[in-house]
Each structure stands twice: as structure tokens, then as C-alpha cells.
Records
---
Amino acid sequence: MASVVAVAHAVPAAAVPVVSNDGTQDVGDRRADISSLSLDQDGVAVVVGVRMVEFADPRTDFFWRNPRASSLVEVKIDRDRDNKPDYIVDFVRAQVGKTTTTTLAVQVFSTTAIAMRCTGSYSLDARGGWIRLGVPKSCIPATAPYRVQVMYSFNRSAERPTLSPVVDFAPDFGRWFPGP
Ligand SMILES: [Ca+2]
Ligand SMILES: [Ca+2]
């Protein structure tokens, strides 16, 4: 688990994000089932949102708090429209410094380097069922409008080690969402 120094918790206010619907009941657990995907790439940040059929709150949910295998949201970003991801954004529980304490964090990586590039921000809308992740554009320079793929992995191994994570992709696996 990578350590994280500081995490901002505020996602910039979205302008008018473009929303795409994902099929529901396409995975075997409502808590892992993405129903919508949103992308806002105006302003100074890229904000990616997923709306869940049933919102398992990452702050409190047992399967998000599991220290051995947390659930996570992973966003792949294509910055030049060549169908290859250039940045990976992970929303996951991460260790705080060298302590055993963990906190939710948005960690941004380049696909060509091991070190974390920067941290992003998140906001949780439990009522609406949305998880929104923000990444400063200065951290992920682009040569074309960004496209994204999102994966939500609901890890149930804390319940039974043999249980595989339930995973949903938006758009469907291998496709890119161009947003606005
Ligand atoms: Ca779905
Ligand atoms: Ca690319």
C-alpha cells in the first residue's frame, strides 16, 4: 500500500459534466454496480464520477475498510486518444506515512513511472450515490481532450478469502468515454 502525505477532500465544483449510463444488474452485487459515469473536463481539473446502484460508503463500509484488501475505484485516462491509458487514478484506502492508520486517498500515477505523480481529491454524495474524483489538469497534461475508463472493484475477501471482487466497468470493458 503506497503512503500518502496529504489529501485534499474538496472536489472543484463541476461545471456541466457529461453523463453516460451504464447497464444495471450487469454484475452480481448491487454495491458494485455502476449505473452512471460522468466526466467534467472544464476548468482546472478533470472530475470523474460514478454513480452506484447501492452506495457502499467508502468512509464506513466494511469492504472498503478492510485493511488487507480494500475495495477501490480505478480510473484510466487516455490523454492523446491513442487508446492506451496514460494515467491511472486510484481511489483507495492508503496508509498515512509510516503509521498503521489508513485514510481514503486519490492517488495519481503515470503509466510510465512507478512513483506517485500527485494526489487528487474526492467527494462523496451518499444520497445521490455518487463518488467523484478530481485530478488537477496540471498533474496530467494532455494533448487532446481526455477520455476515461472506470473500474469499480468491490472486494469481499474479508467475508471469505475465496470470494473474488465484484467488478464493474464503465463504459463496458475496453471502451473509452470521451466526455464533453
Ligand atoms: Ca453496471
Ligand atoms: Ca494514450
Note: The chain has one domain: 3-170.
---
Amino acid sequence: MSNRMARVEKLFVIVAAAALAACGGSRPDGEQAASGAAPAGEQKAAPAAPVADAATLTGTIRFTGTPPAGTPIDMSSEPVCAQKHPGGVTTDEVVVDDGGLENVVVYVSEGLPAQTYAPPAQPAEIDQDGCIYKPHVVVMQVGQKLTIKNADGILHNIKTKPTKNRPFNISQPTTMETARTFDVAEPDIPVECNVHNWMHATIAVFDHPYFAASANGGKYTIGNLPPGTYTITAWHEKYGTKTQQVTLGPNETKTLDFTYDGNATARAPAPGAPRVAAHAHPGTSHGAAR
Ligand SMILES: [Cu+2]
């Protein structure tokens, strides 16, 4: 496992210089990954313009307790997808690998200088592959293109349910690509498929390039940060929001870990309440999970 991850990370370093690695799609332990699926890749923002004395924040999202078993998904209604999961397939809200929680969105929520950041030229990407969204969590920037792929070649209908951006609802009846962008920051846009009710994902959109999604055993890295003091927010769809303050000196690399306790009762937002991360912005606060 560690060799595999080391390879993945090495590969990622090569790719990351030019690309927002959008090939995530971590699978829960025990699930047979779709044949030919790309290995999980750590997602982080595309490089912004170089910052003087840039600092780097890195860390691991740790998970204590017993991860919940995924719920088996019955894909017998879609043979094309079922055959991509010969060992069966489960829901993937909670992915824990080597004690690290994956698909956690980590981002600077306070402390950045007020400025506008140009979107990266490289598109973010979400694929529908084996009737699963890959990656499960997409992190991207305002104005950046999102390429929506349908690798299955069967009908998918991708629907976003934002509160700040304009929603879209796109039918993709065959193998094809569609592009969309988002106009304003919104770190927790739910995504679902109207054809397959088990398909869920999240798109996290930021108006700056200082964000990541944990992968490869819960690891994340946010680089090219101006030295300063920041509030860092971590958000997981089941376990909620956590924040920490960090001060980064010139050229400093600092480790900042977060820990989610799987034995604690996850606190779901009240029905109709504002969604957690939609308010995780400077000047607002939302109760941390537990
Ligand atoms: Cu679908």
C-alpha cells in the first residue's frame, strides 16, 4: 500500500505542475475499483502566480474509531456499470486509508489578502465511470472550466444543487463531455444523478487557489501561500467542519493535521438550515462538528 501511494504521489508531483489532478475517485477498502480506473490522485489547486517567500501547509486528516462500512449498491439495473465492479461496490461517503480520511475539503477560509485570482487554464474534471462519480469530491476555482465526462456510455443526468451559483441539470445519454463553470465561491455544491439515485458527489468552488481535497491516506498540501496567519477549514460531508489557526513564516513548510472521530455522532445539518461550508467564509462562523 505504501509503495503504491509513494508511486501515486511521485506521479502526482510530476503532473501537478501543469494540472489540477482531477482523477481522484478513491474507493473504499474492499471495493473492486473499476478496471482501468486511474489511481487516486491528490487534488490541489493549480499553481497561482508565484508568491514571494511562499509557505506551504501540509498535513493529514486523521480518522479515529471504526469507519462505517459502506452500503452495498445494487447496480443490477445497469449491467454496463455492474460489470465494472466484479467484487461489488459500496457507497463512498467515508473513505479511510491507512488511518487517514479522504475526500475532506481543506481550504483557507480567513486571512488571505483581498485580491482576485485568475482561474487556472487547466480544467477540473468529474467523470461518471461505473455509475460512480470520480472523484467523489471535486475542488476547483471560480471561472475554471469543469469538464463533465461520461465514461459509461449509458444515460447519466448530472444535476447540481448550489445555493449561490446557477444550478444545472445536464443529460448525457452517451459517451461525451460537457463543460461548465461556476461564478461564485461555494464550497459544498451537492451533485446527484437523476437516473441513479446512489450517485452523489460534491463540487467545492473557491475564489482563490488555496484549497485541496485529502487523498492518499488523508494527506493534503496547500502551497504557494503568502506568509501570514490563516484560518484553515476542513469539511467532510458526513463528519462536518473543523477549523484551526495557523501562522506561516516566510518559506516555511508547516504541518497541520485534523482529526475526525468516527465514534462520535456525526451532526447533520438541520433540514432547511444553511449548509455548513456555504458559511465557512471570513466573518462568518458555523459550529464545528462536535
Ligand atoms: Cu447516473
Note: The pocket of copper (II) ion is lined by residues 128, 131, 156, 193, 195-196, 199 (CB under 6 Å).
---
Amino acid sequence: MRKMTLSNGKTVEVECLSCALTSGLIEPDGGVVIETEHFQAHQDVAYPIKGLIILASKRHIKCFDELNEEEKLDYINILSKIRKAQREVLGIEHVYYFYNEDTTHHFHTWMVPRYEWMVEFGRSVESVRPVLLHARNEMNDEENVEKVMEAIGLLTNYLNG
Ligand SMILES: [Zn+2]
């Protein structure tokens, strides 16, 4: 078990953060953006970037080749649906996808939108970590966080409307 402190200050003990989120034990900040039978999507609010979505499986698996046929289909459908929503409601032209199998949680894909301000951190995979750190350390002001929350609302409405 791992002790986790939530953003509201509450402490919970969970075996796996992704299990806790997808089972509804923990409500992600900003809420669930969309949910299917096998997956759940939410904004990672630790990194205040508009439209940065985490897509997690509901089953506790870690590797891509553990997905069953039904999950594979569900995954590509929901992933492309979220991608379309990012384009339609937030005008996001490009997205970087990141997913690591040695996660301490379980199967989840990061969808990191590419914005103009990120260019100074380089291109492609090398820029991902500095971009995320910059967002977490320099963009956590009230005004930007509000914009991020607004974007969550727009995506949620679009995807569930
Ligand atoms: Zn899990």
C-alpha cells in the first residue's frame, strides 16, 4: 500500500493510483472527461497544460500486449475520439503520446498537446520532461489553472454531449 496525499489535503492509502481512479475510489481533479467500458480519461492537473489528458485502462495491466481484443478496439476508439475533441474544442494541432510499461501505477497513456511556447524546450521526446516541469513549476498560477479547468469542461461536454 502507498500513502497518497490528494490535492484537497486528504490522505488515502492505495495499492495502485490508476486502480483507485478508474474504480472511482478517488475522483480526479476536474472530474472524469470520458469513460468507456474499459478506459477512463482525466486531465493530469499536476501539469497545468490545457488538454493534457491521461487515458487509463480499468484493468490492472501494465503492458500493451496484455490488452485483450475488446480493450484494443475500445482503446483506439476512445483515444482517437479524445484526440478529435482536443482539435475541435481546443484547436490543438499536434499531440505527443507517451506511455511507459514500467509505471508504478498501471496502463495509462499521456496525451500531451504541443503548444507554441514549448518550442524553446526542443522537439519530440527530448522536450517532454522539460515541458512538463516548466508547466508544473511556472504555470501553476490561478489564471492558467482556471483556463485548464475550463478546457476540461469543454472537452467533457464535447465528449459526452
Ligand atoms: Zn491498477
Note: The chain has one domain: 29-160.
---
Amino acid sequence: MTSIGTEKKKSSTITVITLAVLLLVVILTCVPYLVSIALAEGPATAAASPIFGVTIPAGYKQWELIAPAEEAAPLNELRAVVGNQTAIDAYQDGKLPFPDGTIFVKRAWKRTQSPDFASATIPGAATTVQVMVKDSKKYAATGGWGFGRFINGKPVDEAQHRTCFACHEARAKGHDYVFTRLAP
Ligand code: HEC
């Protein structure tokens, strides 16, 4: 073999090694991103409620207020029921039963005394986020409503989800199982 041939062989070996090292660096750089994507997608599917498969709807913190509510001790909570546009339109048009696609979210916080003003009550720590989704076919067995109760973004157990419809049915059947009326 000539010395030029050996030189060529050497430099192509170096090129292959360089490319292999570069590839390894790229792969290692990607691993944390791939892991974080996998983790971020994991809880998204895990965050569906048992029985109903209801999830916390995106952007609900920007939804319109339907009415506030207050819960006495021992829960001692301030609440705000908000709805998506379908819900708001249904109230404004006096539509009952609520159409498919209606979603209600009940936000809740510990009732806390304002540090700035003695008689004022303000929201403390968030407690639960509760959701009702109308789909008359999918949830035919529960008046057309799917339920979800979440604490820190995670759904509570199945036993708690078995209580939802019973209470809404017993007390709010005449208003399509929905308690809250549009605040004047
Ligand atoms: C013991 C009765 C009771 C049970 C059980 C119950 N709710 Fe309710 N729910 C209410 C009352 C009363 C309201 C009216 C707002 C308020 O006072 O907080 C309400 C309001 C709501 C609202 C706002 C729409 C509406 O109907 O006014 C949602 C959403 C909701 N509940 C979800 C749930 C979910 C999810 C469960 C089960 C995990 C559940 N509820 C279990 C009594 C109950």
C-alpha cells in the first residue's frame, strides 16, 4: 500500500469516529427532552376521571362566571361555577336541557380572611376542580352528564365519582341536573 493510501484510510477513519461522536452527543442531548415529553404526556392521559373519562378542560380559568357559591363549615369554601360558551349561550337563551358540548367547571378555595381588611373574605388555597360535561349519548346512564373531580390536577377515586350523579339527580333533576343558575 502507498503512503497516500494509508493517509486516506486514516483520515476516513477519523471522519467516521468524529461522526459517531457527534451522533452520540446529539442523541444524549435529546434524551432529556424525550423523557420530559414522555412524562408530560403520561399524566395527561392519567388525568381523566374514573368511570367517565372526563378531563380538566383547557383554558377554563378564562371562562365566564355563571355564579359564585359558598359552602359552610366544615368545608368552608368559596366557589365559582364557570361555563364554556355553549353553557353561557344556553343560559342566555333559556335553553333546557343543556345542549351536548356544555361544560361546567366548579372552582373552589378555602375561605380565608383577608389580611388587609377585617370583614373581607378571600380565596385561600385551591381545593377541588369539579367538571360536568354534557354528552347525551356517551353519558346516557347519568342524565347525559360526565363527571370529574380533581385535586392538584389529579382525579379522585372511583368511589367519590359514584356519588356525583346521585346528589345532582336527587336535588336538581328539574334543571337538567344542574344546580347553578346564572347570577343576576
Ligand atoms: C351531596 C350533593 C353533591 C354531590 C355528591 C356532588 N355535588 Fe356537584 N354540586 C352540588 C351543589 C349543591 C352544587 C351547587 C354549587 C355549590 O353549592 O357548590 C353543585 C355544583 C356542581 C357543579 C357546577 C354545576 C351545577 O350543577 O351547579 C359541578 C361541575 C359539580 N357540582 C360537579 C360534581 C362532581 C364532579 C361530583 C362528584 C365527584 C359532584 N358534583 C358531587 C352538590 C353535590
Note: DSSP finds four helices and six strands in the chain.
